[in-house]
Write a structure and sequence with these properties.
Elements lengths: L4 H18 L4 E6 L4 E6 L6 H16 L3 H7 L22 E5 L5 E8 L3 H16 L3
Antiparallel strand pairs: 1-2, 1-4, 3-4
Helix pairs in contact: 1-4
Length: 136
């Protein structure tokens, strides 16, 4: 099952609300289970160079069914995934990419966020992902 458009819009709205709350303009990307771009938002004032990073964070998370920050931990020199960021057309191996799961814990896509610090990106991505879990 893929993340649906109405779900993607709800996720984007929750992430945008969190970004506004912390005062950082963000780029927010949603990819479906095939890592295809489903929905994208570039908030006013968000850094242009971070648009591609947000998309790649989402793709990285979906490609490996793990948060992008976890890939980063494994891709350090000497790590089991060292240099993986050079695969798949370029990956982003720091936090801000979060897997999206359905009620049965099956991966249905991912969210990627970029524009603030790594911690802020992760916080906004988690807020978006949590909106999917809080649906009625």
């Amino acid at each position: 099952m893929n993340v649906k458009l109405n779900q993607s819009e709800k996720i984007i709205e929750a992430a945008k609300a969190k970004a506004k709350e912390i005062g950082v303009a963000m780029n927010i990307a949603i990819v479906d289970e095939g890592a295809n771009l489903k929905c994208f938002l570039r908030m006013d004032g968000a850094l242009l160079g971070c648009a591609d990073i947000a998309i790649k964070k989402a793709k990285t998370s979906r490609f490996f069914d793990i948060d992008s920050g976890e890939i980063g931990k494994l891709s350090q020199p000497g790590g089991s995934l060292y240099n993986i960021e050079h695969s798949n057309g370029g990956l982003i191996s720091f936090a801000g990419g979060v897997l999206l799961k359905d009620r049965n814990n099956k991966s249905i896509g991912a969210i990627g966020v970029s524009g603030g610090s790594v911690e802020q990106d992760r916080e906004v991505a988690i807020a978006g992902a949590n909106a999917l879990q809080n649906r009625s």
